Amino acid sequence: MDRESKPLGLKNTLFLVGGAIGTIVLMVVIIVIFIFATKPDSSPSKTPEELVDDALSAMPIIDGRNLFASNIRELVFNDLSKFNFSTNLNETYPWSESSRTQTDLPKLRDGRVGAVFWSALVGCQSQHKDAVSETLEQVDIIQRLIHLYKEDLRLVLTAQELEEAIEGKVIGSLISIGAGQSIQSSIAVLRQFYQLGVRSVALTQECHTPWADSSVDKGNITSSGISAFGELIIEEMNRLGLVIDLSYASKDAALSTLKHSVAPLIFSTSGAHSICPDPRNLDDEVLKLVAEKNGVIMVRVDAHNLECAGRPGTIQDIAEHIDYIRTTSSIDNVGIGGNYDGTHNPALDLEDPSKYPDLFLELATTQRWSQEDLEKLSGRNLLRVFKSVEQVRDILMTREPIQTTITKHELEQKRVDQSCMTAKYKEL
Ligand SMILES: *[C@@H]1O[C@H](CO)[C@@H](O)[C@H](O)[C@H]1NC(C)=O
Ligand SMILES: *[C@@H]1O[C@H](CO)[C@@H](O)[C@H](O)[C@H]1NC(C)=O
Ligand SMILES: *[C@@H]1O[C@H](CO)[C@@H](O)[C@H](O)[C@H]1NC(C)=O
């Protein structure tokens, strides 16, 4: 028995020791796997440069507002033969003479821009006059620009087409309307702009429309920021699948629209009021409601976010707006809407869209921005909003087009100059 139990005891000991070692090795392996699995998507060894490079490769920038089209009108009267968008326009007359132009194709490519909302913007002076034809000319020039440079630009009408353009390394090009005066208080005109490929409309810019208030215009304010007719315009935009843009809207107009719209919406070019108290910038109440409603605030890179500092603004100032909006709304509600070609003074070191990656680097260097966070900022948040706008459109598909027209009474309430109008309006 003894002779037999001895080897058995040895075997047992070996078995126990081996088992213990095996268990320890297994635990170490599990712990190591656990540590790596729970780490954020980026390994700690990635430099900020690598983080930005990976983020912008996975999701390039979707820029919420670019006013290049308005400069084609201002500088060359809509004649595309007068310049070559594939060259450095800052070195080509008359662009080289203008302080309000920053965009060309090489700079968009260098800036890792994957899509642009090309804004068709007409000024307040055209309101109740030739706003509609001026806007049509802007839509036309954007379409012709896209067609002429089809190796680099592609017209995009749906979220899926936007993703495909980005995948195919062409710049997804969306047409947006930069101010509500473009529709001349007509839901029919709004619908026809959609037919022409417009996918986003801002309710106002620097002046009120008869149905929505601007943050810049202080006269003749509507109590809730938008009128009853304005609510119908919002409903029709939801029905059509048009992205509502609240940049420049008054606080009341923004709050009312956020509450009334079924679909999430965007601020295509904006900033944080707490960082810079410009009337266009959003206070915390609005920032929090945008988060509740799943919208996105696309941060601009120019004076309105900067001039309150009393010194030339820097890339750090813009990063501060982005960080503040991230903290007050959430990481799901920030985006980029530079407003290039609509400004004379972008931030120092962000003088044209080729510098966008430096802004991302500024954020990545703080170590508070993971690759996933940077991708949300560059484009994923906007893409999410665009998709939900389309989902809402699909749900509302059975609704009839809205047939209501604005009344004489509503125009008079806003003291609209009707001297250039010949249309017959209902009294009430
Ligand atoms: C712009 O210039 C490039 C060469 O620099 C040329 O290949 C291209 O055809 C030009 N495009 C237009 C529209 O003139
Ligand atoms: C124009 O832009 C290019 C590319 O960003 C840059 O290399 C060049 O220095 C600029 N030229 C002038 C005159 O600013
Ligand atoms: C309201 O609008 C009219 C016409 O644009 C203007 O003359 C008037 O001054 C405005 N009222 C206020 C309080 O700003």
From TrEMBL:
Gene Ontology biological process terms from the UniProt entry: proteolysis
Membrane-spanning intervals of the chain: 12-37
Entry keyword annotation includes Nucleotide-binding: no
Pfam family, one: Peptidase_M19
Entry EC number(s): 3.4.13.19
Needed co-factor(s): Zn(2+)
InterPro entries on file: Pept_M19 (IPR008257)
MF terms (GO), sorted A to Z: metal ion binding; metallodipeptidase activity
The entry's keywords: Dipeptidase, Disulfide bond, Glycoprotein, GPI-anchor, Hydrolase, Lipoprotein, Membrane, Metal-binding, Metalloprotease, Protease, Transmembrane, Transmembrane helix, Zinc
Bilayer disposition of the protein: Lipid-anchor; GPI-anchor
GO CC term, one of those recorded: side of membrane
Catalyzed reaction equations: an L-aminoacyl-L-amino acid + H2O = 2 an L-alpha-amino acid
Subcellular location: Membrane
Subunit structure: Homodimer; disulfide-linked.
UniProt family annotation: Belongs to the metallo-dependent hydrolases superfamily. Peptidase M19 family.
Descriptive protein name: Dipeptidase
The species this protein was found in: Allacma fusca
